[in-house]
Amino acid sequence: MKIRLSPSGWLAIAAVLILIAAGAFLFELKPVQSPPQWTEEATRNPYLAAGRLLEKRGFTVRYQPEIAAAPAKPGVLFLSLSSASLPDKAIAPLLAWVRQGNRLILPARLLGDEEGQVQDPLLPALGVVMHDQELEAAEHSLPDYSNDRRLLSGNADDGWLEAGFQGRLVLEDTTGKALRALEDGNGIHVLEYRLGDGRIVVVTETGLFTNQAITWKDNAALFLRLFGPASHEGEAQIVYGGHARGILELFWDWAWPLIISVFVLALALIWYGNSRFGPLLPSPDQPRRRLAEHLQAAGRYLWYAGRHQRLYNAVRQSLRRHIFRRHPQWRSLTDGDLIEELTLFTGLDSPALRQALADAPTHDLARFVQDMRVLHQLRKLT
Description:
By secondary structure, this protein is α/β, with parallel strands linked by helices. It folds into 2 domains: 40-239, Rossmann fold (3-Layer(aba) Sandwich), CATH 3.40.50; 291-381, no CATH class.
């Protein structure tokens, strides 16, 4: 059976074949590897994999986010940050600990000195100088540093290693006292010095030994070479953090333009809010209060301020003036005789009159109300 296609059918088939060929030429299927799922411990400690490697080589490993004093046990101390992050009081004990035959591994940090000197409290006596090859090449119009950034060579017995040094930062031994220097085509990246019976190892980068980079090239072999052989008496201590920077410090370092902009905007809003447009509105008329309200408010204030004695004296003196004005013959009487005359004249209870008119007042609201009621009745009856 033969299938016959019209010219438009053949054109459609040809167009489909052309599209398939173009898609195969333009698009390429590539496998995508999902990022590794780190455990909580590995996320917190970037040198966990390096520590596991040391444990397999016989080391007893202890991790610390920061260090405030020299280790209590002999062994090896690895600092992921410059010793400039250590407290000043910890420098001298740490050097004494190294002199006892221990090993200290720390990175050299380039802190922006014009001559490239490493401003680190543990390194000036060693004579270590850090050079930024990219910066020096730009300042002196020198050719770019070598592209050979991974091939690391040391002493003849050490052999060759391929490590992932960037090549931009290199070290220089100005005293010639280094026991070992590991270098590549760009320069020296590792220097080892003797201090007493111990060793100080200076390395340009410690990021080669993190969880993400320890498996690259020969980074793991280099890490083990820096630590040396394991000791049954000591331990390997890895300090994976340093000074914990506060949220304000981080904001200023990474978002200072935003902070300044917000500050300027706040000043502009304050200025705008304080500006006035148009004439001032007259103050609304406040309703006048009655004299009784003022007296009541003054009495309430005196009572809660502990001035009850003043309230009693004012009422008693006013009442005495009223009584003596109505009955002048009672002016020469004592308080006791006056109270007896008032009892006979008004028929009020004598103890209640004595308490209200003569006894020392107390800061008791119930008694105050009762006394004021008796004095008010006394005024009405006299």
